[in-house]
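re the bet — no i am not wrong, look at it urself. input seq straight from the record:
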Amino acid sequence: MNPVLVILVLTGAVLLWFMLSFAFIPIGKIIYRIWKNAVDKIDTKEKNDKEEI
């Protein structure tokens, strides 16, 4: 296999990795916010259920 081709493929993969990481940061923040809200709702519901008993 041509060593130049291997170097170009690896360089392209690294560049693609960095470009996609910037794209997924906002998506991760949105998913984290949804997850945190869900956990908070579950915790408050469990807390309210314990207080009623």
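see?? The longest helix spans residues 3-52. told u. also Residues 26 and 32 are 10 Å apart (CA to CA). so pay up
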